[in-house]
Structures are given as C-alpha cells and as structure tokens.
Predict the structure of Annexin.
Amino acid sequence: MSYPGYPPAGGYPPAGGYPPQGGGYPGGGYPPQAGSYPPAPGGYPPAPGAYPPQTGGYPPPGAGYPQAPGGYPPQAGGYPSGGYPPQAGGYPPQPGAGGYPAMPPAGDVTLCLQPGGAPQGYPTGPAPGQPMPNYPAGPAPGPSHPGGQPHPGGQPHPHAPAVSVRKLHCNRFINRRYRGSIKDFPGADPLRDVEVLRKAMKGFGTDENAIIELLGNRSSKQRVPLVAAYKTTYGKDLLRDLKSELTGNFENLVLALLMSPSQFDAAELREAIKGAGTDEACLIEILSSRTNAEIHEINRIYKSEYGKSLEDSISGDTSGHFRRLLVSLCQGNRDERETVDVSLAKQDAQKLYAAGENKVGTDESQFNAILCARSKPHLRAVFHEYQQMCGREIEKSICREMSGNVESGMVAVVKCIKNTAAYFAERLHKAMAGAGTKDRTLIRIMVSRSEIDMLDIRQEYLKAYGKSLYTHISGDTSGDYKKLLLKLCGGND
C-alpha cells in the first residue's frame, strides 16, 4: 500500500529470485484496489538503483483526499500551511529551531511561580475547554469522518488536559540537584565487594582501611545487599564477623551503614525508647524530618522487628502533650502538597496566635493540630504570617507559652520545617560541642543525611559557626572512626 508523500509501491522485480508463479497476478504486482490513496506528487524521488515503479498503479480513489501539491489541502478553519502562527506573549523562538526554549542544564532545574500561579516569563494557559488564544481551530478527529472526508464546518480538536504545575511562593524553588555527599559507585558488584571485606577480616588482624574505602564509597542501596551476598558466598553472617573484628564507635558506624535507612531509623527509635530514660530529641529528630512513606516503612519494620507497634512504644514511654505530639507525627499523615493557600495560612497563623500569645494559658492541641497535619510549604507561609501578625517568631512564642519536653519538641518541629539543613547543622554542633561527644547522634545524622542533604548541612554549619563541619569532626574524633565519618562528610568547605 502506498502512502502520501512516499514513492508508489511496487512489487519486487524477478531478479535472480523465484520465478513468477503460474496463475499469479499480471505485471508482477497486485491488482489495483478501489478507493485507495493516489501516489502523492512532491514525495521523495526514487533513489538511484531502486526498484522500478510498478505498472498499473492504484487509480485515483472516489472517496479519498484530493491531490494537492505538497500534501493535503488546508481544512476549513484548520491550521494554515507552515504550522502554528506565533502566539502573543508566548515562547520565544529558539535559534535554529521552532520548538520550545532550551531547558536549564540537566540536574539543575528551578521553577518560580508568581503569586497568581503563572510561571514568570510564560503566558497563562487557557481555561479548561477553551481554545488556545490566537490559534485557529484544527480539523475534526478522524473517527467522526467515515471515508476520510473532512467534517463539515471543520470542528476543532478536543484539547488535551492541562498540565498541572506545582504552585510555590516566588521565593521557593524546586531544586533537583543532588545534595548528598555519597553517590552510587559506578560498576559496584556485591560479590567482588564481599570478597574485599572477607580478605580485610581474614587471618591475623583487620584491614580497617579496606573496609573504610569500600563502605565509604558505596551508596546505601549498594551497601545493604552485601549482607545477603556475604552469606551466599561464604555461608557466614557479615554483621557477626564485623562485630568480632571491630570495636567502639567505628563498629557502630560500620554496622549502621549496612542497614537500610528505615531499618536504621527503627533501630534508633527502639534504642531511644527502651531502658531507663528516653532520648526525646532522637524521637523528634526522626519523626519530624522523615516523609510519610518513610514513616510508614519505619512503622512496618518496627512492628516486625520488635513485636510491638511504634505508637504503643511511644505511648508507654512518654506522657501528656509531648506524647500526643509524637503519636501525631508517627502516623505519617502530613499533607505533602506543594500548593500554598495564603488565605488559609493567615487563618492558621491567627489560630496559633489565639491559642498562645492572645490567650491566658495555652491551647497546645491547636499547635499540635496545625504543626503535625499541615504541609511543610504551607507551614513556612504560616510562620511568615505569624511573625507579620505579632512581631515575634513562632518558636519564641512557643518558648514563652510552653515548657519541658513539649516545648523542645514543638520548637524542633518548627526548626526542621523552616530549614531542615540548618536544624541538622545545629544538632551536629550540639553533639560535638563541650566536653565529650554524643556519638550516637553524630553517627545517626551523618549516616541518615549523607545521601539527602549533607552538602546543604555543611553550608549551614559553616554559616552558623564559622567553622567547617569537616574541621570540627577532625578535631572531635579520631582513628578509623574519624576517617569513615569524614568520608560521609564528603569534603572540607
């Protein structure tokens, strides 16, 4: 079958191949078919040395499209020759091309929207069901025109659904650059990696440097399979072998690197709850900084590993409004939409003011309901409106109105939502400041943030304390423990 714009189809001439069959079609080809497409003039010329055109081609159809040089004639009300007319205020023409403007370099994409929701520099799209301005109506869809005839009156094509764009404040950007310090190692093979680990532990002594170089240059998804690969290859438990070879904080750091992120978080939450006393700061740190999906996975692993739900463990180890705060956070039901309704943000700011500064006593439940349920972009807008309203930052109002664990817990939630990297920089500084080091906190943050925002944490640390995180870790730790932590840090600033 021949199509418009292409040379007429012809059967292959008998040239050294099979002889013509007796009783076959005359001329070596198929008989003409009624109602087929004519060969379109202006198509590709026959290539030199190509097959000769077939005699007795297809006759002009009675119900097809009429011939016209250069293809089909324009439909009534359809698109003119040459494509779309330039749209007023639309995309600027690209040198050497007629398409969309060039995108930013891959991996560094930013988007800023004006308060009305339209991207800066771009036209606002049409309302649903309305034609694009300055564009002529297109031809009607093919299925409604039997026999290939154009629809009388040239009805326009139905519009495709509008593309949804996340609406953010103009000072908020979508930044898709990778901000972790640990990346996938190209060509990593678990079977080769466990061989390195086995050699490092085999015989007299341990080659700690080999362990540091391997684990410090593998991402979490490349480290976790090593546990199964080691048992498959050597019939031994990798974690047990490492425990027998390593000691102290270096051992704890290595074992943490071989857990999945959610498995490690569940283990840290368990450690913070069990025994005498509770590490409230650890509970708030993990539950206020993880996504809904991560919290759901932590809940699943916690119940599977320890035979008790995380909520029950928290309820049995805490009390009062602090317990309510933690239980709310461990549900993993925070709104995660990026859109911000400024009028609703103002209402929430007024509710917080009425529940605290503008009231005798404090309604902690109102703070809990807003801080644990609203999306992070929305809460940042609420905090801004709150400060505009009463001239005081929200965390300072919390400190004036509350006390004890509920105060520290809600302040931590606010700080994490305002600037997550700055919050973790402060947590790291407190872990290393003064006499002694809170190594569990240091290990947890360095491991859990090394593939998320460690580069941002380093920047915030330098800005807040005038000293690089790398330098502080170097002066506060030692030995193989320090070497592996510096690998996770990723460099000096």
